[in-house]
Specification:
Layout (H helix, E strand, L loop, with lengths): L13 E2 L1 H11 L5 E6 L7 H5 L5 E5 L2 H10 L4 E5 L8 H5 L18 E7 L5 H15 L2 E9 H7 L10 H9 E9 L4 E2 L6 E8 L9 H12 L6 H4 L7 H7 L13 H19 L1
Parallel strand pairs: 2-3, 2-5, 3-4, 5-6
Antiparallel strand pairs: 1-8, 6-9, 7-9
Helix pairs in contact: 5-7, 8-11
């Protein structure tokens, strides 16, 4: 058992063993899996997950924990010291080979499924989610991510239009992944116990379910209009295009509606119409 005084600046709340086993069961590792673990901490998930034989790349920012984990880690666990928001994990992952199925050709290629797991620090969960989106856009390498977040963040991830929790995070993650809530965890599942409840969610990565003509413009439009979510769409879109009423009408959207009422299909139409308008303005 790793003994470590939790550090507030890293948002450390360590998962207890009974709950760690439940989370690993929810992850359900199989032959061919290769894991990226974000913030292994004291190894509550790392060591039971390693029992499956799957190779694990564990990225930890706390150097004291890195040293303790490295001294106990089995051969299939690679510990990297660094901030996952700044560390390029893809080269590390490319060198890891999964456990082979029984009877598989030892010289033949192995099918790999790259997966993400982690107990995310509450204060960094949203930036880490956007980091996952960035990796997916760049490489498309990950199959899914099973992560623990504050329950309010989980509410945002699974939110639907016309609800208070529906916003930028919902849309940008929903564009790249199907999100499912797997478990809710009480504060007592962690040491020290946080003041909030937590949830385990699974992001199953996929191609966008709608047409995205310009990924950067899509993100810019979403952030702009949701930054003014209480305004009508016509007013919220003024900072993007000079003729928001025309753009919205051409996209088949009532300019009097509010941003939080738009689903992915409507946002796709809006961005496509916006892109066309901006191209025409340049010409």
């Amino acid at each position: 058992m790793i003994r470590h005084l939790p550090r507030k600046r890293f948002g450390q709340h360590f998962l207890t063993e009974p709950w760690a086993r439940k989370v690993v069961a929810a992850i359900a590792p199989i032959t061919g899996d290769v894991f990226l673990e974000i913030g292994p901490g004291a190894g509550a998930l790392t060591f039971p997950l390693a029992e499956s034989g799957a190779p694990i790349l564990a990225v930890e920012i706390d150097r004291d924990l890195v040293a303790q984990l490295a001294s106990r880690a089995p051969a299939n666990v690679t510990i990297v010291s660094g901030d996952v928001l700044e560390t390029d994990v893809l080269p590390y992952l490319s060198g890891l080979q999964p456990r082979r199925a029984a009877g598989a050709d030892p010289l033949g290629p192995s099918a790999r499924r790259f997966r993400v797991v982690g107990n995310l620090p509450y204060n960094l969960s949203t930036p880490i989610m956007f980091r996952l989106i960035e990796w997916q856009q760049r490489s498309g390498v990950f199959v899914d991510a099973t992560v623990m977040v504050q329950r309010e963040v989980a509410d945002r991830l699974v939110a639907t239009p016309r609800t208070k929790a529906y916003g930028v995070l919902t849309i940008m993650l929903g564009l790249r992944a199907r999100v499912t809530r797997l478990l809710d965890l009480p504060p007592g599942a962690f040491r020290p116990a946080p003041k909030v409840r937590s949830s385990v969610v699974r992001l199953e990565f996929r191609p966008p379910p709608v047409r995205v003509v310009d990924a950067e413009l899509f993100e810019r439009v979403v952030k702009r209009i949701f930054g003014q979510r209480r305004k009508t769409l016509a007013n919220a879109l003024k900072s993007v295009v000079p003729n928001p009423h025309e753009v919205l009408t051409a996209a088949g959207i009532d300019p009097r509606r509010r941003p939080e009422t738009l689903d992915l299909v409507e946002l796709s139409r809006l961005v496509e119409q916006t892109a066309g308008t901006l191209r025409t303005a340049v010409l």
